Amino acid sequence: MSSRLALLDRDGTLIEHVHYLSDPAQVRLLPGTVEGLRQLRQRGYTLVMVSNQSGVGRGYFSIEIVEAVNLQMQQMLLASGAPLDLLLYCPHSPQANCGCRKPNPGMAEQACRHFQTTLEGALVVGDSDCDMDLAVNLKLPGYRLGSPQLPRLDLLPALLDQT
Ligand SMILES: [Mg+2]
């Protein structure tokens, strides 16, 4: 159980949702992100971002933009003592029928390979239907951020203690 995965959405979960975010200057951590990530790490979770970035496949922005936004977020998290362990994203459009676009399991499988672990004990956190569908597809507990049950990420540990 030393390397159970917390699979975390990016937009609307770790940072403020901006429609097709394409500017690192627009990255804002959500209230509760830093403390939530710290507490998840304390509980033995490996922190993995899994993000759909179909704006690339749709031609709205480049891979370099996604990487720049991710780097900005990770630097902010690092400065707060709560860096992610792995940042994964799917750049494909829905029409590409790839295996990595949530709710498909590709990014979760990639995280397992990266850390040479399984999904045992893992969980999914996100703010969208596709995140919850990912949890269903992976047969993992899914926690919906922004729901009455979980308005902020730093309230997740208390929720985990109840279950
Ligand atoms: Mg989201």
Task: Offer a few descriptive terms.
Rossmann fold, 36% helix, five-stranded parallel sheet, alpha/beta, binds magnesium ion, 163 residues, 5 strands
Short description:
The chain is 36% helix and 15% strand. With 163 residues, it is an alpha/beta fold. It has a single domain (4-162), classed as Rossmann fold.
Write the SSE topology.
Blueprint: E1 4-8, H1 33-42, E2 45-52, H2 54-57, H3 63-79, E3 86-90, H4 106-115, E4 123-126, H5 129-138, E5 142-144, H6 156-162
Parallel strand pairs: 1-2, 1-4, 2-3, 4-5
> How widely separated are the two ends?
17 Å
The CATH superfamily is identified as HAD superfamily/HAD-like
Strand pairing plus helix content: what structural class? alpha/beta
Total beta strands? 5
Which range does the strand content fall in?
A: 15-25%
* Largest β sheet strand count, sense and barrel closure: 5 strands, parallel
Question: CATH topology, which one?
Answer: Rossmann fold
Count of distinct structural domains: 1
Provide the list of bound ligands, each named once. Answer: magnesium ion
Q: Which shape, going by the Cα principal axes?
A: globular
- Unreliable segments of 5+ consecutive residues: none
CATH class term:
Alpha Beta
CATH architecture: 3-Layer(aba) Sandwich
Q: Percent helix among the residues?
A: 25-40%
